[in-house]
Every structure is written in structure tokens, then in C-alpha cells.
Amino acid sequence: MILAMTLLHAAQLLQDSALGTTIRESNWWYAVLNVVHVLALMVAAGSIMFFDLRLLGVGLTRTPVSEAAARLLPWTWRGFAVMALTGCLLISSEAERLYFNTAFRVKVVCLILAGLNVLLFHFTVFRGVAQWDRAAVTPARARMAGAFSLILWVSMLAAGRMIGYTLDT
Questions:
Q1: Which has fewest Cβ within 10 Å: 34, 63, 127, 167?
Q2: Domains of the chain by residue range
């Protein structure tokens, strides 16, 4: 209960900040940030999708997994960095409303789980990539990580899209 009140208070302070107020009251800041956020999301999610499909053995099967990672992950990280920055700026303009928004909470949970999935994959399965790098069928744990990633990103995208259509206050 105390944590919830502290988070709500932090959301209210963020929304009432000069930054949050400027973005909310501007005729164009919110729209520009939203467009950049969606473009960065396309870069991050698109590169993640291609890598996950490689892990699942559905796409890029002639490309070694390590090469796919070397080519795609820099795009993923750049897109994610821009997406995170613009997302935080967008949140600042309506933080209190988002605090109560179920779709936003689902999006955040999916984002956290996707991050944990990436960490787990890279610190376990991917360490042995040299042994299965060129295999069309990757190890079961790699396929599971790819499938879980795809499910989480699709869920995150759907939840993000639903934020504007939910009636939570």
C-alpha cells in the first residue's frame, strides 16, 4: 500500500513537472514524440522479430545465429534507446492517468518480462552459440526464448495500442 501511494505520488509529481506540462500543453511535442516513439519501436521490434524468427528456425536459416545477432542487435539497442527515451517523455505528460491504466500496466509487465528473457537468454543459452551457430534447428531453450520474446513483444504492442482506448482514469 505504501509503495502504491509512493508510485502514485511520483507519477503526480512527474506529470506536474515543467517537462510533463510542456509536453502536455504543446500543440506539437506530444505528436512528434509519439511518431518518433512508434518509428523507434518499429526498428527495435522489427529487429527483435527477425532474430527471434532465426532462433525459431523460421527465417534467416542460412545465416549463423551469431552473425544475425551481430547485424540485428545494434539496431535493436539503438531503436530501444530512442523508444525508451521518447516513451519516458510521453509518460511524463500523463503519468497519473497511466498509473491507473490497466493496458499500460500490462505493457510495463511485458517489457520487464522481455528484458528478463533477453538477460536469461544471453547469459545462458547464447553463451554456447558456437556449438549450434549454423544449425537450422536451434536448441529447444533458444527456440523457447525466441517464442517467448515474440509473444511478449506482440502483447506489449497490443497493450500499448490499447492504452488510448481504455477507460481507466
A1: 167
A2: 2-165
Residue 140 pLDDT > 90: yes
Residue with cell 537450422: 136
What is the spatial distance between Cα 130 and Cα 133, in angstroms, rounded to a whole number?
5
The Cβ of residue 62 has, within 10 Å, a number of other Cβ atoms equal to 8
* 164 confidence band (pLDDT: 50, 70, 90): confident
Contact between residue 83 and residue 37 where contact means Cβ atoms under 8 Å apart: yes
Q: Are 76 and 48 in contact (CB under 8 A)?
A: yes
Listed in sequence order, the residues at least 6 apart from 27 whose beta carbon sits closer than 8 Å to its beta carbon are none
CA-atom Rg of the chain in angstroms? 18
pLDDT digits (tens, 9 = 90+) for 7-51: 888 899 999 999 999 999 999 999 999 999 999 999 999 999 999
Q: Residue 101 — left, alpha, or beta (φ > 0 → left; ψ -120 to 50 → alpha)?
A: beta
